[in-house]
Specification:
Oligomer: single chain
Structural class: mainly alpha
Radius of gyration: 37 Å
Largest sheet: 3 strands, antiparallel
Length: 218
Amino acid sequence: MASAAHPAFPARGYGTSLGKLPDRSMGPAFGASSSQQQRETQRLERERERLEKERLEREEQNQLSEEQREEIKEAFMLFDLDKDQKIDYHELKVAMKALGFDLPKAEILSILQTHGSPSEPPNPNVPHHPRLLLPFAQFQMVMTQRILARDPRDEILRAFELFDEGGKGKINLNDLRRVARELGEGLEEEELAAMIDEFDLDGDGAINREEFLGICLQ
């Protein structure tokens, strides 16, 4: 029994005096939420980059003339021999050459490694050695960039070579007559001769490369 001089000590209440321990059960949930937000942020960033890339590609393609876009399409379709909307190394090389880009092997392989994708096995039960193939969309993008980066003089000299039969280095009256006939232009002999006379600066009866450049760049 407690003495009157020494009253009983108050109960300490051990269960409550230490206070409530922190609830650690929410820790993993917060971590998972943070990780999920990070993944979502990365996904949105990749999507933004993809859309920006597509926008830039559309802008580049819009800088080409309708004729240039058609040339790219025709070159791809002509050399896509198996008509699977993809071209391999050899098909890519001749297609680019037809568009005026005669590239070395290393550069063709670099394009395929950067923009191509491996071929799928025709039969999963048969051993398959995949080849790198370039789809039309990637071919169009690569050719658009190269055409826009090309020196205008190169394009003009390429046209000069179409006139200059036999690689003489000059366009004479016979060349103009042939091109006019191929294009279905009914020009008279006097008109063709007048064209030569107007631009023949050195008086040799033909138009050389520099004279042709002057005509096109003036």
